[in-house]
């Protein structure tokens, strides 16, 4: 089989429903984290955030604290955010799963 240059996820993602905000420069929008791993998250935003792929953002959520990362994709009001590898994201996400997480099933919207 040929390598099609497909990059697979390095960490398992778990579905969740965490409400918070995404901050880009001086803009903040309400958000909901749809799935989460120690390396990144998929986030649904309620209003447009005018940031391109590669933009540095922060996710702010009560159960997680502040997570720093980079937008990897954006589509239909959703963002894929890869956490900074040198941040505390891995420990913060592990702590969330240990103390706060309850399993949820994905919900189709729209």
UniProtKB/TrEMBL annotation:
Name of the protein described by the UniProt record: PilZ domain-containing protein
GO molecular function: cyclic-di-GMP binding
Transmembrane segments: none
Domain PilZ span(s) in chain numbering: 9-93
Superkingdom of the source species: Bacteria
């Amino acid at each position: 089989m040929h390598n099609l240059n497909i990059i697979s996820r390095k960490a398992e993602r778990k579905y969740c429903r965490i409400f918070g905000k995404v901050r880009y420069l001086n803009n903040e929008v309400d958000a909901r984290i749809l799935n989460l791993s120690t390396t990144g998250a998929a986030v649904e935003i309620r209003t447009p955030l005018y940031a391109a792929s590669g933009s540095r953002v922060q996710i702010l959520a009560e159960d997680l604290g502040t997570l720093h990362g980079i937008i990897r994709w954006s589509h239909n009001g959703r963002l894929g955010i890869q956490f900074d590898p040198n941040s505390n994201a891995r420990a913060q996400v592990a702590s969330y799963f240990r103390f706060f997480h309850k399993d949820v099933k994905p919900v189709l919207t729209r």
